[in-house]
Design brief:
Length: about 475
């Protein structure tokens, strides 16, 4: 007997199980969709909310206070500091690399007295909940490879995204909602966001991120066409099940399984999505907490509020994208605008999760694909300037889900150019995120083209110092 025939005869495939459960739940076993029978170790977090700031926020203007840059403002970047660092084509051929101090005031916050820019008053207000990692670093120096690296573990497109890996490993807590949801701030420019950033790669298609859009229809084509009712849709699924059964007799194709699973999820989401995304059900104090922008679907504030609602309902991985942090010019004004759009809502999400008892098992992450240079891109003239990409060190923060609040991990040099203590590579960050979810990053693998792939490739170590 061939393997396909064996799988066909003994079980009729996962798609049939899923449809059987949909059409008659009492006759079908529950199916979580997870690759792991159980976590590798006790998890500290059940879910992740990743607030991805696409474009590369400037670390020395937000979190990594460097008064030396203000003292040396306008002077040349010392050759011994730069070393052999590769620069982008946007500033690599400049005849001068003048240092630029931050125009923003910094003050200490929280019990540990960590530095925050004046642009982040709300984030500073939850300083004791945050674990600041000042020593993130990456090999990527441009946006496409940079975002791919942090989202998929590889600088090249085609690998599964971090949310897909988590969904593959742990499955969903709510069978009526996707395990991996993507939200993108509307009406923003910046670098394009390709679907490969939340794709499933070579994992089964059911693990790819499902993008929710703002407006009347969060998911396109989810509602029934005019004249098609629930009973008609149910009959269609019954017919699909029979066609699936016949096809399985000759060809147990996993693509069929994935497609059937998507049909089932779409059917369930017709009732679950409207309820989950109905922000008008929120009390007035929620909008006061997140800010007036939260009343406008598709804004970062509204997406943060929606992320909390999805976390409450058991969505495993919630990925927010907020573009336009790529300040090659006009940084002072551009950074103010970005922080006005994100600061209050990000802090509100932390406070809201905490007051609902969800922060302890929800890991919240904030950060971009790399940082910015301490020198000016182009000619430094007056108070308006820009900064180029900088992969050697940048800041991300984490909160909840088993990390140490009020901690500043790692130290950069006085120029915020090189790391002096406790470096954290992209793969270390990914290994730690999986660890907090109860997953050993070396053991969550998928065999493809003769090789066992994993999110962290062949690198990565758990950053034990940031664990609570």
């Amino acid at each position: 007997m061939q393997r396909r025939q064996f799988l066909n005869q003994f079980g009729m495939g996962l798609g049939s199980i899923a449809l059987a459960e949909l059409l008659n739940p009492a006759e079908a076993p529950a199916e979580s969709g997870s690759a792991l029978l159980a976590p590798h170790h006790p998890p500290r977090a059940k879910r992740v909310i990743f607030l991805f700031q696409s474009g590369g926020p400037s670390q020395m203007d937000l979190f990594d206070y460097k008064p030396m840059l203000n003292e040396m403002h306008g002077q040349e970047l010392p050759a011994e500091v730069r070393g052999t660092q590769r620069l982008t084509g946007m500033s690599g051929n400049q005849s001068s690399l003048p240092l630029v101090g931050s125009p923003f005031k910094f003050t200490r916050h929280g019990e540990a007295g960590h530095w925050f820019s004046e642009l982040l008053p709300h984030t500073a207000g939850v300083a004791d909940e945050l674990c600041l990692i000042h020593t993130m670093h990456t090999e990527a120096i441009n946006h496409g490879p940079g975002v791919n690296h942090i989202q998929t573990g590889s600088q090249f497109p085609g690998r599964p995204s971090i949310g897909a890996w988590v969904n593959y490993g742990l499955g969903s807590e709510n069978q009526d909602l996707p395990g991996f949801v993507v939200l993108i701030t509307k009406d923003k420019g910046g670098q394009p966001l390709g679907t490969n950033y939340w794709g499933n790669g070579f994992l089964p298609v059911s693990h790819q991120g499902v993008r929710f859009r703002s407006g009347k229809d969060p998911i396109l084509y989810l509602e029934n066409p005019p004249g098609i009712g629930l009973e008609t849709r149910r009959e269609m699924y019954a017919a699909l099940r029979e066609l699936h059964r016949r096809e399985q007799r000759d060809n147990a194709d996993p693509q069929i399984e994935g497609r059937i699973a998507q049909y089932e999820m779409a059917f369930r989401m017709q009732t679950s999505i409207p309820e989950a995304t109905r922000l008008e059900d929120e009390p007035e104090h929620s909008f006061k907490l997140y800010g007036e922008d939260a009343r406008n679907p598709g804004t970062f504030a509204a997406n943060c509020l929606l992320a909390r609602r999805l976390a409450e309902r058991g969505v495993r991985f919630i990925q927010l994208y907020h573009p336009e942090w790529d300040h090659h010019g006009g940084l002072p004004g551009g950074l103010r605008k970005q922080c006005r759009e994100t600061d209050q809502a990000a802090a509100a999400l932390i406070a809201d999760l905490k007051q609902r008892g969800l922060l302890q098992d929800t890991l919240v992450v904030w950060g971009g694909e790399f940082g910015r240079t301490n020198y000016c891109q182009g000619k430094l003239a007056g108070s308006n300037f820009g900064r180029d990409h900088h992969p050697r060190c940048f800041t991300m923060w984490l909160a909840g889900g088993g990390v140490r609040g009020g901690l500043a991990h790692g130290r950069t040099d006085p120029f915020s150019y090189n790391i002096e203590e406790d470096p954290v590579h992209i793969h270390d960050f990914q290994a730690t995120l999986l660890h907090l979810l109860g997953i050993n990053h070396e053991r969550l693998t998928f065999r493809y083209q003769g090789r066992a792939f994993r999110l962290t490739d062949v690198h990565g170590h758990v950053v034990d110092k940031i664990l609570a």
